[in-house]
Amino acid sequence: MSQVLMPKATAVWLVENTTLTFDQISAFTGLHPLEIQAIADGEVAGGMTGYDPTTNGQLTKEEIKRVEADSNARLKLSPRDVPMPQARSKGPRYTPVAKRQDRPDAIAWLLKTHPELQDSQVAKLVGSTKSTVQSVKDRSHWNMQNVRQRDPVTLGLCSLKDLNDAVDRARRKAAREDAARKKEAAKSGAVEEVAVSDVDPAEADQPDVAER
């Protein structure tokens, strides 16, 4: 069997959108059944956007229904006559003119769906600028009345891998910053506790004497 594109993201989609067993999804994606179970439990691939294998010709809806009806059946990849997409080379992302009008929609979707992303990440994903991201965020964009949230992957503005990688980096950064804040707060609390303990208990209990 040919290799499945984006196996983990595909597994996420199959877990969320079908009644296939863990073994069936495992056999199709090449992931271990325990990893499929961990995905279903939310312990693995948390926040990852699922990759619909029916939209890229890897599976048909009829094939999924066939295997859902028989727990012993296994999914078979659809024949592919189109060449596999090649990885994009390093450098600035080029957005075709026909798709540039879709960028505000994609920005709105990213801001709503993944608020953990920085403006610079959003701009990079859709090939836009931070000023445009900000204008959509504060609703000052010139065409805001016609902006509607649409998935940038579906629009073809970025790949699912790019999106999931950006979300993963943003969440790891947020986790590091949160840990640093907690550490700083704990340190500040310890300093205050030491300052209080330095006060002489006898002096602390001594009542104030009014001046005569």
Automatic annotation (TrEMBL):
Top-rank lineage group of the source organism: Bacteria
InterPro entries reported for this sequence: TrcR (IPR010421)
Region (Disordered): 79-99, 174-212
Membrane-crossing residue ranges in chain numbering: none
Pfam families xref list: TrcR (PF06242)
Ranges of Acidic residues composition bias in the record: 200-212
Compositionally biased region (Basic and acidic residues): 174-186
Identification of the protein by name: DUF1013 domain-containing protein
Organism of provenance: Reyranella aquatilis
